[in-house]
Every structure is written in C-alpha cells, then in structure tokens.
Design a protein that fits this description.
This protein is an alpha+beta fold and 136 residues long. Helices cover 17% and strands 28% of the residues. Strand 1 and strand 2 form a beta hairpin. The longest helix has 23 residues.
C-alpha cells in the first residue's frame, strides 16, 4: 500500500507541474481597463498633450464620464475625467468614437485603431463619452 501511495503522489506532482508549465506559457493577462495603465487592446485618453500624464484606459465603452476618476500614481490621480483630456492613443484593434457630451452626443470624432494624437480645439478638454466601433 505504501508503494501505491508513493506512485499516486508522484503522479499528482507530475500533473500539477505540467499544469503550472502550461499556465506559465499562456502569455500575458487580458487588459484591465480603468487602472491607469494603457495596455494592448485598450483605448486611452490622456490628461496632457502628447499622450502624457494620467490616462483613462478603456476596454469597454463608457458613454458617461461624469462618475469616472483617474487611477494610478499620476499627478492627477483622483481627479474627474469628464472634460479633462487633451490627447489619446488607441491600442485596440477597433476604432473608437468620442463625444463631447454624454451618450456620444455633441461633437463626435472617430479615432482609428493604432492611432495616437492630440485632441483638436473641438475636443480638447471637452470629451465626455467614448464607444468602440465594430469595424477595425
């Protein structure tokens, strides 16, 4: 019986080790939006021009920024996001639309996939909503 238990234990250890190797090889975790870190597959709105300062990073649409605050260790952390963004970077495979009013109202612009830039005078410090589109 003691020999059978040793074989069973060794078999369990081998299975657990193989599982750990497979889990380690799965690659990076999915993006975690709204954490203050712009990652792959996210759309980011930045506090300052040239994609600097705090970032509001989105994985899913948000059509009302009035209850959102910057996260992380940046200088504007804890400040409201609504009407306080000056630049953007789209690391998503889809284009994103932004609006100067909630519910994608007011002036609406579209930011293509893998594009970065500064907001025009129409959008600078006026963006209040964002929604991803279904086309790349």
């Amino acid at each position: 019986m003691d020999n059978a238990m040793r074989k069973l234990s060794a078999g369990c250890i081998a299975v657990v080790s193989a599982g750990a190797i497979l889990l380690g090889a799965t690659g990076p975790a999915a993006a975690w939006g709204r954490d203050g870190n712009l990652e792959n597959q996210e759309f980011g709105l930045f506090y300052w021009q040239n994609q600097s300062g705090c970032v509001f990073d989105l994985v899913t649409s948000d059509v009302n920024f009035s209850d959102d605050k910057y996260q992380g260790s940046c200088s504007a952390s804890g400040n409201w996001i609504n009407d306080t963004t000056e630049s953007y970077r789209n690391r998503d495979v889809y284009a994103w639309k932004v609006g100067t009013d909630k519910d994608l109202g007011g002036n609406v612009g579209e930011i293509p996939s893998n594009y970065a830039g500064n907001a025009s005078a129409t959008f600078k410090n006026k963006i209040s909503s964002a929604k991803y589109t279904l086309h790349p």
